[in-house]
């Protein structure tokens, strides 16, 4: 902002255009406190390397070390220069920030050293320019991860405002957050395994029943046991599904998600089976078929396995490539099957009874399986069969590297998109913060002015002399001229937790504070409300920062 | 896209043509060149700079009008001369010169009179500078009333247009306007 201080006289002068149409007369201009603003050169010696710059350049940013009078601590009387015992290479970037208003991050520097220098000179890293910001964030994140690995600490959740429902949801999504979540995670995993094993074992023949020649499967023999085990598993799954449904932040979206569909499909056969056996036995055949769907329980493991999830996502994202592969295979199969059929159809007792029947032969041959249950007899058929198996090797071997490279490309791409989305969000938040800060600074200064005038009217001395710089004074004068022109007033912007700015209308003060004003006849936010809104803004900023970190993981 | 480099005429000539001293011109040029290294300002840069001063509002429309008023030769960019000459008028000129400048700002199509539409556009642009967080709330009636009030004060022969003479007379007669114009004098 201060970098455009050169244009401020310009903006002020252009405000003359408001005067003829103003509804109220303009406020008087601010008094220029410092009239002796000599523009002299300042010498800075950083570990032997000398830098020189105008005093005005450094004073552009008064809340840094070089812009404030903190630098007087480093003044060397004998040499008449400021001496800093710091890294001169990094200081170059710091000085360029004052000159150009943009802070750059040199890629070859160590991130910790850079951060230390910035902290020494009182510069916040948030103002790194867009050109270097991504690099800086990446390096910072890598460094933080390294630190976390070294420390092996478990910070856990740090949002104290979670309700029961949010805590439950977080426990479900991230089992590492607490022992209860971990226990639940392992228990459900165990029951999924038990259920799947039960489905498998109940079809195994269990041994001959003594006294007969039957060899029933275990399911028929120990029907009650398997029923009890199945019931227990389904109860656990139902409870889990209902709990997830309750804890989900967006229930409709959760119900449409694939994991929830799998959950439902896994437990539905049991309930349908209960109702069916109660009604009649005619549909018990359908009931038996339904048991097939119980195998979907194995997909519930994908919550427990990161690799399964990545695989599923890859297949989904490679769908077009896989589709093309299937299509080209289908074309090859149809071509070869047609030729084989017409070559072999005149042979006696041939198995190539139709083209679809030849499909089976083509597939088996192209994948080099070669069961041998169907073979050609004619010479033409054998030639075509040979060509078919040779081309099969090629057609099958080609798509594998394509899919693998696709997988790696999509994986890296999704990582990069996530990173970019998070950075964009952070950047927008910073811009919004800066906008609000400047607006809030103006309103705060207005209040301070009124406070001082009120104190003066009461005969008390104002406590602190405000020493805002000339630029801020003039800028605020400009804004108050605008208010007078339009007969409106600037109010405080409040940002609620959604990140949407809401207009803070003139709310009455919550605590009886000094709100008696002699010449006030409009509703304005008073000191306590401004404090409350600024606290909310700070909190929402913190949560945004946290979300930032979460997403970029 | 060609980057045009521009060099202003000498310090002495500028000193003669404007009411600034040498030192003031030096400081102004240094700031100007820092912001625009090529030596000229085009409309985009101008709008960005204005947006920084009025972060909560929509400043692009008003910035456009101010830009066209500063850009005397209408070549789409402001050189340092035009910048300094305009600033000299605005901060150190006589009342007459300032009113002339304001008139040329309002007269968007440069036909010598201000029509009601032009005034409405200007006033809408000024209200846009405030942005959303202002109160009382702004709607079309506010702007229309404001325009009507201005025309009532300035349009003496009620023909729907404000000419330069009517504008001068109305502003000179209004004491608060003359005083307010003096507020922006101590610019540097």
From TrEMBL, chain A:
Residues making up the signal peptide according to the UniProt record: none
CDD domains assigned: BTB_POZ_Shal-like (cd18420)
Ranges where the record places region Disordered: 499-553
Localization per record: Membrane
BTB domain residues: 40-139
Entry GO CC: voltage-gated potassium channel complex
InterPro entries attached to this UniProt entry: BTB/POZ_dom, Ion_trans_dom, K_chnl_volt-dep_Kv, K_chnl_volt-dep_Kv4, K_chnl_volt-dep_Kv4_C, Shal-type_N, SKP1/BTB/POZ_sf, T1-type_BTB
Stretches that traverse the bilayer: 225-246, 258-277, 322-343, 355-371, 383-404
GO term, biological process aspect, one: action potential
Name of the protein described by the UniProt record: Potassium voltage-gated channel protein Shal isoform X3
Organism classification: Eukaryota, Metazoa, Spiralia, Lophotrochozoa, Brachiopoda
UniProtKB/TrEMBL annotation, chain B:
Pfam families: EF-hand_7 (PF13499), EF-hand_8 (PF13833)
Boundaries of every EF-hand domain copy: 58-93, 94-129, 142-177
Entries under SMART domains matching the protein: EFh
Family annotation (PROSITE patterns): EF_HAND_1, EF_HAND_2
Keyword tags: Calcium, Metal-binding, Repeat
InterPro entries: EF-hand-dom_pair, EF_Hand_1_Ca_BS, EF_hand_dom, Recoverin
MF-aspect GO terms: calcium ion binding
Assigned protein family: Belongs to the recoverin family.
Name this protein carries in UniProt: Kv channel-interacting protein 4 isoform X16
Species, as recorded: Lingula anatina (Brachiopod)
């Amino acid at each position: 902002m201060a970098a455009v201080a050169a244009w401020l006289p310009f903006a002020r002068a252009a405000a003359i255009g408001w005067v003829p149409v103003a509804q109220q007369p303009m406020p008087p201009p601010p008094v220029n406190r410092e009239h002796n603003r000599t523009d002299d050169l300042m010498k800075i010696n950083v570990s032997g390397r000398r830098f020189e710059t105008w005093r005005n350049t450094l004073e552009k940013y008064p809340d840094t070390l070089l812009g404030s009078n903190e630098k007087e601590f480093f003044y060397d009387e004998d040499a008449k220069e400021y001496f800093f015992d710091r890294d001169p290479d990094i200081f170059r970037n710091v000085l360029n920030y004052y000159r150009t208003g943009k802070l750059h991050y040199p890629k070859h520097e160590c991130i910790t050293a850079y951060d230390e220098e910035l902290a020494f000179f009182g510069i916040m890293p948030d103002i790194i320019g867009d050109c270097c910001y991504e690099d800086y964030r990446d390096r910072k994140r890598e460094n933080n991860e390294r630190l976390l690995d070294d420390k092996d600490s478990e910070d856990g959740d740090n949002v104290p405002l979670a309700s029961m429902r949010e805590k439950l949801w977080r426990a479900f999504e991230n089992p590492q957050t607490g022992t209860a979540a971990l226990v639940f995670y392992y228990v459900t995993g165990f029951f999924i395994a038990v259920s799947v094993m039960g489905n498998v074992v109940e079809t195994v023949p269990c041994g001959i029943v003594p006294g007969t020649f039957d060899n029933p499967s275990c399911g028929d023999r120990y029907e009650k046991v398997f029923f009890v085990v199945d019931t227990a598993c389904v109860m656990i799954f139902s409870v889990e599904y209902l709990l997830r449904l309750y804890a989900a932040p967006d229930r409709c979206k959760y119900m449409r998600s694939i994991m929830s569909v799998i959950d439902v499909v896994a437990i539905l056969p049991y309930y349908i089976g209960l109702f069916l056996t109660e009604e009649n036995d005619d549909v018990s055949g359908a009931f038996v078929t339904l048991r097939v769907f119980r195998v979907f329980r194995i997909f519930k493991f994908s919550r427990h396995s990161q690799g399964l999830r990545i695989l599923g996502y890859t297949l989904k994202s490679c769908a077009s490539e896989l589709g093309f592969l299937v299509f080209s295979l289908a074309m090859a199969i149809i071509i070869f099957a047609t030729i084989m059929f017409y070559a072999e159809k005149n042979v006696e007792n041939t198995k190539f009874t139709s083209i679809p029947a030849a499909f089976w032969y083509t597939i088996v041959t192209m994948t080099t399986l070669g069961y041998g249950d169907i073979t050609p007899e004619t010479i033409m058929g054998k030639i075509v069969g040979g060509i078919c198996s040779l081309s099969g090797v090629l057609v099958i071997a080609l798509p594998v590297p394509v899919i693998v490279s696709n997988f790696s490309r999509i994986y890296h791409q999704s990582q990069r998109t996530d990173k970019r989305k998070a950075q964009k969000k952070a950047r927008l938040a910073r811009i919004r913060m800066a906008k609000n800060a400047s607006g809030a600074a103006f309103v705060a200064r207005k209040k301070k002015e009124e406070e001082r005038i009120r104190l003066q009217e009461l005969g008390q001395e104002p406590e602190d002399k405000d020493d805002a710089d000339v630029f801020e004074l003039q800028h605020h004068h400009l804004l108050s001229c605008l208010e007078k022109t339009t007969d409106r007033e600037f109010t405080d912007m409040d940002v609620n937790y959604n990140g949407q700015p809401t207009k803070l209308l003139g709310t009455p003060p919550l605590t009886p504070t000094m709100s008696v004003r002699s010449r006030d006849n409009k509703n304005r936010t008073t000191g306590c409300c401004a404090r409350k809104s600024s606290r909310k803004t700070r909190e929402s900023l913190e949560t945004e920062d946290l979300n930032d970190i979460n997403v970029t993981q | 896209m060609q980057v045009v480099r521009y060099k202003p005429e000498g310090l002495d000539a500028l000193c003669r043509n404007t009411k600034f001293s040498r030192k003031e011109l030096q400081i102004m040029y240094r700031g100007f060149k820092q912001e625009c290294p090529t030596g000229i300002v085009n409309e985009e840069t101008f709008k960005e700079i204005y947006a920084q001063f009025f972060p909560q509002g929509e400043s692009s429309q008003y910035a456009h009008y101010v830009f066209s008023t500063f850009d005397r030769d209408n070549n789409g960019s402001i050189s340092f001369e035009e910048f300094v000459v305009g600033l000299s008028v605005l901060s150190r000129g006589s009342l007459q010169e300032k009113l002339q400048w304001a008139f040329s700002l309002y007269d968007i199509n440069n036909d010598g009179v201000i029509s009601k539409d032009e005034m409405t556009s200007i006033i809408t642009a000024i209200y846009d500078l405030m942005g959303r967080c202002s109160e009382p709330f702004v709607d079309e009636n506010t702007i229309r009333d404001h325009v009507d009030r201005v025309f009532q004060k300035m349009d003496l022969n009620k023909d729907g247009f404000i000419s330069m003479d009517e504008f001068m007379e109305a502003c000179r007669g209004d004491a608060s306007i003359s005083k307010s114009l003096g507020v922006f004098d101590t610019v540097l």
